[in-house]
Amino acid sequence: MSLNEVLLRIDRLAAGRQRDIRVPAVRLADPTLHRDWLVVRVLLGVAIMLGVSALGIAFWLTMQGMPEPFMVWMRSAVVLGLTGGLGYFSFRAEQGWYWAHSRMRLFSFIFPCVTLAIAAIPGIYPLWMTVEQLAFAALMLGVGVLLTTPRMRAAYRRA
């Protein structure tokens, strides 16, 4: 099985009915669009490093005799996985898959809303985790803003 066949199988799970819709290559030729995707990849990379750092901090604090609550571990792992999923969507969207751009646009606004709502609950997380959540939300909002620029919306319009 080729890599492309594996990716198409993954796409079937992630894309749903829109899995076969691709934007014309001519719409993706704009060099500024490539620059925007580079910024999106950098923001996602920083978000992944933030997630790995959160797991590292939780591990270090636990080794120092200050075990972190289960919520810290769970949130760190889930956010790291979700950010990795956005990285996959980014990879596929750059190749012209409409569904991937659509999913990224949606999730890049949903994730920060959920993150900020949870961060607002007093005492659920330690202060360092709350700061990490605020940074993650800012990164995701940055991704969302880039994905909704007129240039991106024109490139990834459905018809």
Q: Can you walk me through this structure?
A:
- The chain crosses the membrane at residues 38-60, 72-91, 106-128, 134-152.
- Keywords: Membrane, Transmembrane, Transmembrane helix.
- By secondary structure, the chain is an all-alpha fold.
- It has one domain.
- It is 75% helix and 0% strand.
- The chain contains 6 helices and no strands.
- Helix 2 (31-63) packs antiparallel against helix 5 (127-147) and helix 4 (98-119) runs antiparallel to helix 5.
- It is elongated.
- The model has no long low-confidence stretch (mean pLDDT 89).
Question: What labels describe this entry?
Answer:
159 residues, mainly alpha, 6 helices, transmembrane
Task: Give a topology summary.
Layout: H1 3-15, H2 31-63, H3 70-94, H4 98-119, H5 127-147, H6 150-155
Helix pairs in contact: 2-3, 2-5, 3-4, 4-5
Helix content: over 70%
Main β-sheet description: none
Order of helices and strands: HHHHHH
SS element count, helices: 6
Q: Which stretches are low in confidence, meaning pLDDT under 50 for 5 or more residues running?
A: none
Q: Give the count of structural domains.
A: 1
Alpha carbon gyration radius: 17 Å
Structural class: mainly alpha
How far is it from the N-terminal to the C-terminal residue, by CA? 32 Å
Shape: elongated
What share of the residues does DSSP label as strand, in percent?
Answer: under 5%
Task: Give a count of the beta strands, DSSP E runs of length 2 or more.
Answer: 0
Mean pLDDT: 89
